[in-house]
């Protein structure tokens, strides 16, 4: 249930401010965030579409340090 609630909040943030929703899902230093930021600067609708795609279809990558 908590995962569903978080997803709904991410989608709501993606509609209101697209880079914020992507930041919550993937972090603020990810490639997805910067692409969304550029698309939102160029046009609000492309930023929203990309943010929704990233939140719903792309799984966050877990980076592990191999020692």
In short:
This protein is an all-alpha fold. The chain has one domain (about 1-55). The chain has helices spanning about 1-15, 20-25, 30-40, 45-55.
Number of helices: 4
Report the structural category: mainly alpha
Give the number of DSSP strands.
0
Count the domains: 1
SSE order, one letter for each helix or strand: HHHH
Mean of residue pLDDT values: 86
Largest sheet geometry: none
Query: Which stretches of 5+ consecutive residues score pLDDT under 50?
Result: none
The helix content is over 70%
Radius of gyration, CA atoms, in whole angstroms: 12 Å
- Overall form: globular
Distance between the termini: 36 Å
List the helices and strands and how they pair.
Elements: H1 2-16, H2 18-26, H3 31-42, H4 44-57
Structural descriptors:
4 helices, mainly alpha, single chain, 67 residues, membrane, (wild Malaysian banana) hypothetical protein
Report on this model:
With 67 residues, this protein is mostly helical. It has one domain. It contains 4 helices and no strands. Helix 1 packs antiparallel against helix 2, helix 2 packs parallel to helix 4 and helix 3 runs antiparallel to helix 4. The longest helix has 15 residues. The radius of gyration is 12 Å and the shape is globular. The N and C termini lie far apart (36 Å). The mean pLDDT is 86.
């Amino acid at each position: 249930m908590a995962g569903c609630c978080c997803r709904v909040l991410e989608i709501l943030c993606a509609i209101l401010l697209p880079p914020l929703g992507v930041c919550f899902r993937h972090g603020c230093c990810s490639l997805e965030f910067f692409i969304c930021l550029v698309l939102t600067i160029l046009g609000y609708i492309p930023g929203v579409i990309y943010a929704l795609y990233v939140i719903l279809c792309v799984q966050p990558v877990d980076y592990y340090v191999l020692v």
